[in-house]
Amino acid sequence: MQWFERLGVPSTASRDQIKKRFRQLTAELHPDVKPGGEELYRRIVEAYTAGLAAARGQAPPSSRRPNVAPGGNLWRQVVVPLRTSIVGGVVEVETRGQRVNVRVPAGVAQGVRLRVTGHGELGDPPGDLILEVVHGDHPSWMRNDPDVLCSARVTWLEAYRGDAVQIETPWGPRWITLPSGTREGDRMTLTGHGLRNGQRHGDLRVAVRLIPPVPGSRALEEALAGATFRN
Fold this sequence. Notes:
Blueprint: H1 3-7, H2 15-29, H3 38-55, E1 74-80, H4 82-87, E2 89-95, E3 98-104, E4 113-116, E5 129-135, E6 141-144, E7 147-155, H5 156-161, E8 164-169, E9 172-177, E10 187-190, E11 196-197, E12 200-201, E13 204-211, H6 218-225
Parallel strand pairs: 1-5, 7-13
Antiparallel strand pairs: 2-3, 4-5, 6-7, 8-9, 10-13, 11-12
Helix pairs in contact: 2-3
């Protein structure tokens, strides 16, 4: 197949016509837009190179890169779930109609920019996608770098007896033992369960939230009536 047939232009096409057609084909057939089309796009590039040479009255070069402008960078924000911002992971973003998995490092701070090479504007080479990190909210956790703050909901009975209770942390479920007579707002610390940045580990600071019993129990009323309370 001749170069002009592959590009879909007349054999007498001018350089401007060839460049315009190549830009159209790049927007449609570039591998970033059409995954798996690397071989087809390589042939398009070869035809484009041969077409430019023919328009100048030269022999087609064997390995010359086409004179295509590089693509610009794309900038946007990405909301990273709070747990992912602490332990690291992958978030999915959409760019130019494609879904791209972006790796998030553990402990990534708010406002940090993540660069995804080759997923910006089309060109040769294509630009990059620059993502500014925004932390998502969580109902139980909050970052206070390098520590993580969380709350633990426990029953009156568990707090009174000093039971061991399970809490959900960014690193998975953990058990903590309550001091006997734990009160609303008391705080405990799980060392090393906050942000982990190299050898430096923050802590998980747990605030107790008491769950009151369901009203209507006669036995509970009698027990409370005979109990001794402290200030």
